[in-house]
């Protein structure tokens, strides 16, 4: 019999020590390595932020150039992985395709040398470089096309949009997408990061670490919520229906997607930035028909549930940004994964540097000393 207090969902229980990121949920503060997310969104870019998260400090100009160069060089994926992806069912979810493809990388880069900085760097570069290529490849393959080869002249964000649509993206679109990646790159010990850390703690390879995290991110209570937000807005259909929709959810005690957070008890700072990015895009490319519904829903939810600390989270406005960038709804979570690979890798590195395998305890609630009944004496129920 254990005398530990059981907390469902491990709420409030520290499972690690980390210097990677910090959230103050009461004040709506998010920092990566001590730097406010607002500053990174304005001044940094996704690859510089990834370097900061993984190696703990901002790179010098030479270090950043070398890092970007390595990533450009490793963007392509092996033809056997592309061929494997061609065998995936077109109707399958792109997150499942990504999980399988990330795990498949482990077949090709099987050496495991977790105490070798060269190995760590190579794995970081490969995963950051190839995950976007694999997401775009599945999208092209399921449309019946060949995967689009990465374009070396384009930066990280622009190249992904190019591989998706096979045309050079608009500069504002590429910039907004890059900021989205920065905003989603890391968020302390959330479910997928915890999953990555548990897997990492067995000292398996980083491809298995990322594959397990992708599987965890896919669920609707985590990364999958951004897809469901669009379905919610679609279902509501018009601003006039917002109040009735919300009333119905509250009566049925069903959750409104894109709201609520285990840590934030105010509006998620990333949602504030994403809303501004959405507005920038609308100014240039035209308003999204769902935006007014989203704003009305946020207002209504804040009025009804704000006193319980339920506000818009990161997933609420990200979908509207992605729609304007021409990203299909079921790629929203894979796009989240492209960004979060940086955080997962930072935690992988931190975990293996000071590792102890995760092996928590449980409170057993079943019987003891039950008698084994032979099968011919058992009754059907
Ligand atoms: N709509 C209505 N009620 C809510 C919501 C919501 N979106 N979120 C929480 N609540 C209520 C919930 O019903 C519960 O009420 P009661 O105490 O009366 O049972 C109370 O608030 C606490 O909710 P919880 O589910 O126990 O809280 P949690 O910390 O376990 O879960 C959460 C956090 C994010 C899973 C939850 O807020 C949720 O399911 N939100 C909707 C899904 C969503 O938007 N997920 C994205 C999360 S942010 C990005 C990410 O992690 O990927």
Automatic annotation (TrEMBL):
Record lineage: Bacteria, Bacillati, Cyanobacteriota, Cyanophyceae, Synechococcales
Keyword check for Secreted: no
Keywords for the protein's UniProt record, in alphabetical order: Acyltransferase, Transferase, Tricarboxylic acid cycle
Record's protein name: Citrate synthase
A GO biological-process term: carbohydrate metabolic process
GO cellular component, one term: cytosol
Family per similarity comment: Belongs to the citrate synthase family.
Keyword Acyltransferase (UniProt): yes
GO MF entries: citrate synthase activity
The species this protein was found in: uncultured Synechococcales cyanobacterium
InterPro entries: 2-MeCitrate/Citrate_synth_II, Citrate_synth-like_lrg_a-sub, Citrate_synth-like_sm_a-sub, Citrate_synthase, Citrate_synthase_AS, Citrate_synthase_bac-typ, Citrate_synthase_sf
Catalytic activity: oxaloacetate + acetyl-CoA + H2O = citrate + CoA + H(+)
Source superkingdom: Bacteria
Active site, renumbered: 261, 315
Pathway assigned to this chain's UniProt record: Carbohydrate metabolism; tricarboxylic acid cycle
